[in-house]
Amino acid sequence: MKELKIDCENINKTTFSCAFTGHRFLDESFSLNTLQKEIERLIKEENVNCFYCGMAMGFDLIAGETIVKLKKKYPIKLIACVPFYEQEKYFSEKDKIRYFDLLEKCDERLLVSEKYYKGCLLKRNRYMANKSDFLIAYLRKDNGGTAYTVNYFKQKNPDNIIYV
């Protein structure tokens, strides 16, 4: 009788999730290549298969678009976490097009609030941080929503923040 072999790697395989947080305006230090490499590393090495995107201008849109490209290569999903209805109202025309294109390509769409209120962006950020095992952050300032989200996530899991 042949010896039976158990494939332990495929038993109880756990998957993980990651949120994005970053500034609306990116400086010359931002590297799309670094962002993509870190996302792919999380997919391959940490078994991350779910990504949360806040859908804001700048870093969020770029991170979400990167996930859409990588969906052709990996079995991953993208969840849009929209803080309030008509978030895109004050986006440039170019960013509105990108926003709606990305929103259409998301696997799920969550709306935090029907209307804007002070604190709804932070509520969205806390939601994503609470749902995620990892955080990819483009942080260049010590204040604002990105810094708040990084500090909030640090309370939960300080070792799982990736700065790009």
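^ that was protein a. below is b, sequence first then the tokens
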Amino acid sequence: MRATIFNTIKAALESIKDSNNECVIKHIDLFNNQLTYIETEQPFNTPAVFIEFQPIEWMEQLHGVREAVVRVNLHIVTDSRVGTWSEAVSRLALCDTINANLQGIGAIDAAESVMNALTLISSTTDHDFDELQDNIETYSCHVTDRSAYK
């Protein structure tokens, strides 16, 4: 189910294009504390989005079906050295653009597992950054996982 959620979010992020029809987000990956270990981390282009799954509490149903409310943090990483300080608002506008593309998306995978509408539930603005700013947008969706259905 997490792969379905990840791939659905990734596809929505890849659909965000600039005026030259190029993808605005230059790197999309699973979150692994990339900014904590920036000196040893594989290089990545910005803007980047790292997808972090919060712990999932599953509720078992009958016959191997389970449900959960899944929370996902999107770490929207931008380079503060690009442009001037007055352009900082554009980094915040990127969060709004991402939300406009993600709000309400869902999916059904091959096992007929369902990811219901993704909804933004909180935003955390990074106010203490050096070169890279990490704004965190937290989304929630209800899922029904039928991958173990018998």
